[in-house]
């Protein structure tokens, strides 16, 4: 699955790899990779693959799940499609509570004690998805874990998830994408080591070379 999803993301250009012309993240970090999983929604073939993979992962890894909750905004559509495949309720968690109406942060019916799986499109340092998990726990939900489409596998993100006592299962990751990109000729074989070096320590820019 990691390889198939990695290949699909590269084919639809949801993942860009530019080790020689790095991107600059909002944090100022230079990165050889940029991932935009929203593009999955515009590609029927990739969308079918990814959404079925999310549904299959929920069934396999979290068989007790009762509700899917998407992260706002990128995880909402993926949670909705996967929930439709699974014939399961879904909702989503806002980045912040509404300033009008019922001032909801969680949208959709969620009962105390319900077993929830969070659907996220991408995990880097893990901060935003942990905020979602915290909001669900505060509402009384039992968060079984996360299913994400892609993870960078950064140590900071792994540490944060561990501290929050939440499990994440990703469909694919930076390592799988880098290897598939090298196999397909998208990047040079020696660039794989540069990508992994970035992943291991994003603040060390020696990989730019």
Question: Which helices and strands occur, and which strands form pairs?
Answer:
Blueprint: H1 2-11, E1 15-17, E2 23-24, E3 30-31, E4 33-35, H2 44-61, E5 67-71, H3 74-86, E6 90-93, E7 106-107, E8 115-123, H4 127-138, E9 142-151, H5 155-163, E10 168-173, H6 174-183, H7 191-200
Parallel strand pairs: 5-6, 5-8, 8-9, 9-10
Antiparallel strand pairs: 1-4, 2-3, 6-7
Dominant shape:
globular
Helix content: 25-40%
* Element pattern in H and E: HEEEEHEHEEEHEHEHH
The number of helical elements comes to 7
Q: Low-confidence runs (pLDDT<50, min 5 residues)?
A: 98-102
Give me the side-by-side strand order of the main sheet: 7-6-5-8-9-10
Evaluate the radius of gyration.
Answer: 17 Å
Strand content is 15-25%
Count of beta strands:
10
| Strand-pairing-aware structural class | alpha/beta
The largest pleated sheet is described as: 6 strands, mixed
Task: Note down, in words, how this protein is organized.
- This protein has seven helices and ten strands.
- It has helices at about 1-10, 45-60, 75-85, 125-140, 155-165, 175-185, 190-200; strands at about 15, 25, 30, 35, 65-70, 90-95, 105, 115-125, 140-150, 170-175.
- A six-stranded mixed sheet has the order 7-6-5-8-9-10, with helices on both faces. A two-stranded antiparallel sheet has the order 1-4. It has a two-stranded antiparallel sheet with strand order 2-3.
- α1 (about 1-10) crosses α6 (about 175-185), α2 (about 45-60) packs across α3 (about 75-85) and α6 packs antiparallel against α7 (about 190-200).
- The longest helix has 18 residues, at about 45-60.
- Mean pLDDT is about 95; it is low at about 100.
């Amino acid at each position: 699955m990691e390889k198939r999803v990695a290949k699909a993301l590269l084919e639809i250009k949801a993942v860009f790899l530019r080790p020689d012309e790095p991107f600059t993240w909002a944090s100022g970090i230079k990165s050889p990779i940029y991932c935009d999983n929203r593009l999955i929604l515009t590609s029927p073939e990739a969308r079918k693959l990814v959404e079925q993979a999310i549904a299959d992962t929920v069934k396999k890894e979290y068989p007790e799940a009762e509700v899917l909750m998407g992260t706002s905004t990128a995880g909402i559509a993926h949670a909705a499609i996967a929930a439709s495949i699974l014939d399961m309720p879904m909702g989503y968690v806002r980045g912040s509570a509404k300033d009008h109406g019922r001032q909801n942060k969680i949208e959709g019916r969620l009962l105390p004690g319900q077993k929830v799986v969070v659907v996220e499109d991408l995990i880097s340092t893990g901060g935003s998805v942990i905020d979602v998990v915290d909001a669900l726990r505060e509402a009384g939900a039992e968060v079984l874990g996360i299913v994400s489409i892609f993870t960078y596998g950064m140590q900071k993100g792994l540490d944060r998830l561990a501290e929050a006592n939440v499990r994440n299962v990703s469909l694919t990751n930076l390592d799988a994408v880098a290897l598939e990109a090298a196999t397909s000729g998208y990047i040079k074989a020696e660039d794989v080591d540069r990508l992994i070096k970035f992943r291991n320590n994003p603040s060390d820019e020696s990989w730019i070379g």
